Amino acid sequence: MREDDLLTRVQRDAAIACALAAAIALVAGGWRAALAVLGGGLLTGLSFLSLRGALDQAPRARRRIGFVVLRIAGRYALLGFLAYVMIARLRLPPLGLIAGASSVPAAAMIQAVRFMLKKKTTLSR
Question: For 62-66, 99-103, 108-112, 113-117, which range has the lowest pLDDT when averaged over its residues?
Answer without folding.
Answer: 62-66
